[in-house]
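Problem: given the chain below (243 residues), write out its structure.
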Amino acid sequence: QQGSFLNRNHWSFNSKSMAAAEFAPSPTAHDVLLVGDSIVLGGNKYRLEDRLGPQLARLTGLPVWPVAAGSWSLRNELIYLRQHPDVVAGVDAFVFVLNSEDFEQASSWTCDLIHPRERPALAVVYLFRKYIRGGCEDARPDLKVPEGDWKQDLAAFVATPGAGGKPLTFFLYPGRDDFSGTWVDPRASELRAAGAVHVYPIGSDARWKPSFYRDGIHPTEEGYRVLASIIWDQVRTLLPPSD
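Solution.
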């Protein structure tokens, strides 16, 4: 799918649900899979080029494949990777951007107002329902993602052949209320115990500032630029030399 919000902010998704061109791993460059929730997705308020994936691609010169959805938890993200072994096998590094709420149970699809499955017949009716009336019912029992343990899911992912030996980095991203300049998510030790060797707290980086929040959680365009720099400074040291 592709389109634009208010004929201004372009968006597009490929057949792998990535906000990118059709997935085609490079035969020579290191492909980076960028995984997250609405922080990675960006959403309608941002131009496509201002979001984290495109900014990281411009900075690194590497193919960056962003896969994300609003309200996704770590379990949602790991389920996606389990369902797409070709993506796991085709990339060379995994980058997760997580906030403190991403360690809950997996989110479930609820209604077309949040994640539409087809183009609405009348846009004005859809916009009224979404932004004026609003709200979705709870997920239907048959569509609810079964409960599970993210630690077990992560350990299983690390053990898959496609992921073995590839850099896997988790960036812990603080919300505005969490950020203090010394904040470290208490989940860092749990991530390491489950097999995540590389865990980096964004809140402890001197470059990250309170002014980089657009709202309580999402970055400004400048915040995305700085976040891309922080991520690249960590990931570049883990990648093998290019051929």
